[in-house]
Design brief:
about 350 residues; two-stranded antiparallel sheet; about 70% helix; mainly alpha
């Protein structure tokens, strides 16, 4: 019997959509029954995992698939979160909430209580900001690109703090309607994965990979590299904005301090851990990162102990950092590199 690799990219359309439908049905079934299987704490952690999957998969599109070392996610997540909050909060609530300065009339009066349209608008606003940003950003490459996009995240945070008429300044926004239920978040994560996967393995995705591998060669072969990078940047920003909206709704309150570079750093750890350019790597990296942080949480509790080892505040991050360091030493390209998990799966053919 011959061993054959499972390759979704070479399957017929019927078989491909059949597998997608089967995976979707299984995941939706899990979303439906999991509230009856797990306690509230576990469900909250799973909801956080789904949000970070949305952010990691979309961030991997620009950083891993297209190969552009961008450090902007915290800025787009913040935009999505604030747009969602401003649209979902009623004028009466905003009038009572703004303490530093009165909100601008258009900020106070906008009100769209429909969660679906609110998330779409949040994503579109983030994508439009990405389009505007693409013109100056993609004039540089490499480390310079990282510096420019890093600055964008700082600018957004400073803008939110210094414009209380729009964002309520450093006090942030609270009482955000909690429309983002566990099922809603999980379903949005599933849609994000399916859409991004189909982009990656389309002609646009092949152009993105060509830019990643050798931008000058791609340009010489007729690939419009600026358009390709801008498309990846906007798509990534759209889903990061949607993820920010879900994050705002699930937490119920937001402030500029939640959208520091640490958020980008966490997402960077996730996609590097899973493998730059690997969608399944981004998903599994999220599970390992968020799950690992929760499993190690008792290490921060001073009352916890196993024999001579006692919990110390901050010990969790030390242990987790050592684990990540060990993984990176033995898997330089992450767990999956630029491949998908099914590229390593083989089945026997008679």
């Amino acid at each position: 019997m011959e061993k054959v690799k499972l390759n979704l990219k070479d399957m017929s359309a019927a078989k491909y959509f059949g597998i997608i439908a089967a995976v979707t049905a299984v995941f939706l079934g899990f979303l439906y029954i999991s509230p009856n299987l797990f306690n509230d704490y576990t469900i909250t952690v799973l909801g956080n995992v789904y949000i970070f999957i949305i952010l990691a998969v979309s961030y991997n599109l620009i950083n891993g698939v297209t190969g552009q070392f961008s450090l902007e996610p915290n800025g787009f997540v913040a935009i999505g979160a604030y747009v969602t909050a401003l649209l979902m909060l009623s004028p009466e609530v905003k009038a009572d909430m703004y303490m530093i300065a009165d909100p601008y009339p258009f900020i106070k009066d906008i009100f769209l209580p429909n969660p679906f349209f609110t998330l779409i608008i949040s994503g579109i606003v983030s994508a439009l900001v990405a389009l505007t940003l693409a013109f100056p950003v993609f004039r540089v490459r490499g480390d310079y690109l990282a510096i420019v996009t890093l600055g964008f995240g700082f600018i957004i945070r400073i803008f939110l703090i210094n414009n209380p008429e729009i964002s309520n300044g450093s006090m942030g926004l609270d009482s955000i309607p909690g429309f983002a239920s566990y099922f809603w978040i999980g379903f949005t994560a599933l849609v994000t994965i399916v859409l991004v996967y189909n982009i990656v393995y389309s002609k646009y995705g092949r152009a993105m990979k060509a830019v990643r591998d050798d931008e000058d060669a791609a340009l010489a072969m007729g690939v419009n590299t600026f358009k390709t990078k801008t498309l990846a940047f906007m798509t990534s920003a759209f889903f990061e904005g949607v993820g920010g909206g879900l994050l705002a709704s699930s937490i119920g309150s937001i402030s500029p301090d939640q959208f520091t570079f640490m958020l980008t750093f966490q997402l960077l750890i996730i996609i590097v851990l899973g493998g730059l350019g690997s969608m399944s790597g981004a998903i599994i990296g999220t599970l390992l990162f968020i799950g690992g942080m929760e499993v190690l949480r008792p290490l921060d509790d001073a009352t916890w102990s196993i024999g001579p080892v006692h919990g110390i505040p901050g010990l969790r991050m030390v242990v987790f950092s050592l684990i990540l360091l060990g993984i990176m030493l033995f898997a330089r390209k992450g767990l999956f590199g630029d491949k998908e998990i099914w590229d390593y799966v083989k089945f026997k053919k008679k």
